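re: the backbone from monday

yeah here it is again, tokenized this time
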């Protein structure tokens, strides 16, 4: 969900991004409430169009179980829940869970979302799976480890999704910070791993999509 403050480029031109998000039509009241809260807080979201993409991907593999590494107050979980998935969310900040409980209160899809508080990688390591989809959206230095764990917990035919892999264009240059270096390492591992087929979609800040073979 984060975006580098010193990004080199906008991956998707703002005019195109706004156009794509407008194509969604009328917004669900829950989605609108989540977006309004994000705007109030200045909280970075995966975005409505990328959210639609992950929902489509989840539906395309018949996903029922999703594990999110990094969930905030449940924006990306909305799209998985709308696809009919049970979503395990991870978050280390109590105020994110408080926002989730308040905004999602009374919504029928809330029962599809379960939060684990604490370190996302530790929770994932303790969970043997299997899952249909894993979404990686944590501190970028944790991405390479998340890849290794995901490969052991996603079923054949399932998906590993990773947000922010283009990192405002910084990954196209020599790394000068740990986050960029970790994202470059993630993409090397994903691209070379014979257990998966990986492509990067230029939506949002770059979404890596890996099909577990």
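seq for it, each position gets an aa:
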């Amino acid at each position: 969900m984060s975006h580098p403050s010193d990004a080199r480029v906008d991956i998707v031109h703002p005019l195109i991004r706004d156009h794509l998000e407008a194509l969604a039509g009328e917004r669900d009241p829950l989605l609108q409430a989540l977006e309004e809260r994000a705007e109030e807080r200045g909280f970075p979201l995966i975005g409505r169009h990328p959210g639609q993409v992950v929902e489509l991907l989840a539906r395309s593999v018949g996903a029922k179980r999703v594990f999110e590494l990094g969930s905030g107050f449940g924006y990306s979980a909305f799209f998985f829940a709308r696809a009919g998935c049970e979503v395990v969310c991870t978050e280390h900040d109590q105020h994110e869970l408080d926002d989730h409980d308040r905004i999602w209160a009374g919504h029928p899809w809330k029962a599809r979302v379960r939060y684990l508080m604490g370190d996302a990688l530790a929770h994932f390591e303790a969970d043997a799976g299997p899952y249909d989809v894993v979404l990686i959206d944590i501190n970028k230095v944790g991405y390479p480890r998340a890849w290794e764990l995901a490969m052991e917990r996603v079923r054949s035919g399932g998906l590993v999704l990773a947000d922010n892999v283009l990192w405002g264009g910084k990954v196209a240059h020599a790394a000068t910070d740990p986050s960029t270096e970790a994202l470059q390492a993630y993409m090397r591992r994903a691209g070379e791993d014979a257990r998966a087929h990986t492509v990067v979609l230029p939506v949002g800040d770059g979404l890596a999509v890996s099909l577990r073979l």
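The chain has a mean pLDDT of 95. The longest strand covers residues 154-163.
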